[in-house]
Amino acid sequence: MKIYTKTGDDGNTGLQGNFRISKSHPRIIAYGAVDEVNAALGIVLTNILDDDIVKLLTKIQNDLFLVGADLSNPNLNDVKNRVTLEMIQNLEHSIDKFESELPPLTNFILPGGSIAGAQLHYVRTIVRRAETQIVQLSEKDEINSNCIIYLNRLSDLLFVMGRLINKRKGKDDILWKI
């Protein structure tokens, strides 16, 4: 099978259930943003990170495919939602675990520190944009609401991971100064 099908040459694309919609539809924009998050995590993973972080980020990359699959389904009655509360709880568990290694925040911090820490903060901003685009989609079409919650928790986790990687690399948080 060839990678190109030519079926999207008219500006439309296919969804689950043999639906075709414009490539500018909020559904396509939303799951495209999730795909961007996944690609950005792939860049982070090219850096030398601790095994626990690598394992978790790889799991998250796989989970993001489930988020995209749920978003590409315009008919929620046809298929069981893939993004579950358990996936969200796993993110929350990781946040709690990693936060226990960090000093409490007393100031806002700036993205930076190590390359991997800064990249995690950058991916967090992509996640926030993806979440916003999914919310916009949910205002127009029915979606699995767990997708929004999952990305909300993921942005929190990436913030904590950015701080954690910096701490593990001996880099202090960069405090925001007025």
From TrEMBL:
The keyword Nucleotide-binding applies. Keywords: ATP-binding, Cytoplasm, Nucleotide-binding, Transferase. It is found in: Cytoplasm. It comes from Nitrosopumilus zosterae. The keyword DNA-binding does not apply. Transmembrane segments: none annotated. One of its GO terms (cellular component) is cytoplasm. Pfam families: Cob_adeno_trans. InterPro entries: CblAdoTrfase-like, CblAdoTrfase-like_sf, PduO-typ. It comes from the Archaea. This is ATP--cob(I)alamin adenosyltransferase. Residues 3-164 form the Cobalamin adenosyltransferase-like domain. SUPFAM superfamilies: Cobalamin adenosyltransferase-like. Gene3D superfamilies: Cobalamin adenosyltransferase-like. One of its GO terms (molecular function) is corrinoid adenosyltransferase activity.
